[in-house]
Amino acid sequence: MEQIRKSVSVPGAITILALTLASLGSVQAKDVTDADILNDGTKNTNQVVTYGLGTKGQRFSPLAQITPSTVKNLVPVWSFSFGGEKQRGQQSQPLVHDGKMFVTASYSRIFALDVKTGEKLWKYEHRLPDGIMPCCDVVNRGAAIYGNLVIFGTLDAQLVALDKDTGKVVWKEKIEDYKAGYSFTAAPQIVKGMVITGNSGGEFGIVGRVDARDAKTGKLVWTRPVVEGHMGFKYDKEGKQVENGISGTTNATWPGDLWKTGGAAPWLSAYYDPEVNLIFIGTGNPAPWNSWLRPGDNLYSSSTVAIDPDTGKIVWHYQTTPHDGWDYDGVNEFVSFEYKDPKSGKMVKAGGKADRNGFFFVNDRTNGKLLNAFPFVKQIDWAKGIDLNTGRPIYDDKKRPGNPFTEGGGDGKKGEVVLNAPSFLGGKNQMPMAYSPKTGYFYVPSNEWAMDIWNEPVSYKRGAAYLGAGFTIKPLHEDYIGALRAVDPVSGKIVWEVKNNAPLWGGVLTTGGDLVFYGTPEGYLKAINATTGAEVWKFQTGSGIIAPPITWDDGGEQYVAVVSGWGGAVPLWGGDVAKRVNFLEQGGSVWVFKLHKP
Q1: Catalytic annotation on 327?
Q2: Residue 306 CB partners (closer than 8 Å, separation 6+)
Q3: What is the pLDDT of residue 18?
Q4: Where is the Pyrrolo-quinoline quinone repeat domain (predicted)?
Q5: Residue 564 in contact with residue 558, Cβ under 8 Å?
Q6: pLDDT of residue 576
């Protein structure tokens, strides 16, 4: 009987065990919350879930285990190759959450890796159609995470949301028609449960636009065009489009119908400051490049635009290059920081921007008022300075490319060629800078180069290049093009610089350990003393770095990671500069480092 009783009692035990196992099995991987996003990089240092290590985009981490004295012990932990022949430029900033790293790669790919070992957990490779038209290489700058989704954009202008644990597609939405020249290369940002995106394609006469979608479903919440004259929309629960006001005033700063193909693509990431509840995003060049065809300021091209996330309306704008005639896109990041006004001594909620046009701008982030502006490169030709009272450039009219309709014998073929610095690739381009609240400096990856530029006649054709300009890029110095610069936003002074032979095209990270990390096209990840500018460490990754580093901690250890893979705009558009760096090799990998324990 005892044996029978035991055998009878077993099924009950099995049932309890099964229920227990089922309960354990139902424990889900951690979702990414709004609080995770708002605390990223500062309070939550064991993760990186935003492009910029925080919604303000400072790229500062308080982590201080790695310092100028300990960095000599920084060694690789693992490296992962993106594989295949699909190399080209690799500009992705990795994300880290719940034991996984999510990193995008060229040709619209994304990988999930075990953050401790580098083991591949899954890969999604977007099927790209023939005829995509990315202007500046087949790059991707990163993803966003929200809930159980990882979301990234593709070169055929789509957004794809994947289950972050399995890699399975949850939703997919079209941003715009790639056949008209639209594409997407930026990292999306999450703001109040919405995924915020711009678009790429400014060289094709597209219309720049910022979209907000429900991050869980992909459905549109609102859209805001950033070319004056276009209607914005909100969307109800059924997806019905409701008018939400025209951007600006039709024909106020654009002549005729040119606003209909006005460019101004916001092709880099948006940033968000919860303190003022505003989204900040930069807008690209007006189309066409030939400014003689479009008199006026051409709003909202080449600007910083502040948008209310709740209404989808523009709250303020500041145009860094009105009536742009040099392709000085204003897309560069607007980084929120606290600015001590030297006149009043008061702290101001401000934002800093190292613009492509060579000037560094400081604006009140509540209303856009200009607080300071100064050069961060050594040679600027197109303007003599920025008028701090009006906020407008002081143009050198002789440095605007000549009018092809009145010059060159009146044949309308080519206007006067002018030399301008910086080149259209900018005093700073897509590579994000960093700001340290500890030192009060911005760390700006800058470039010194010039261009011969001229205007030509052009007419719009859907899906065709819409420039009306020609150019040749030239180095200004024999010994360097790139320079990492520590910039004081209050004094306007360059505190220190580290010169580099090739152009700098990767982003910057700064830490509470008084270090600045950045990569070079020559393949080095470098660490610089944040106060003095002294180089204290470097590591050769095997290919050029054109991506921003990140850092996080896990189990009491600080890690650093960066993506390596030469490419981007420089070898495609760089002219004489491209020839100077044509020895550099392509690649495609991510490297992870931590301190070696003796």
Answers
A1: yes
A2: 278, 279, 280, 314, 315, 316, 317, 365, 368
A3: 39
A4: 50-371, 483-551
A5: no
A6: 83
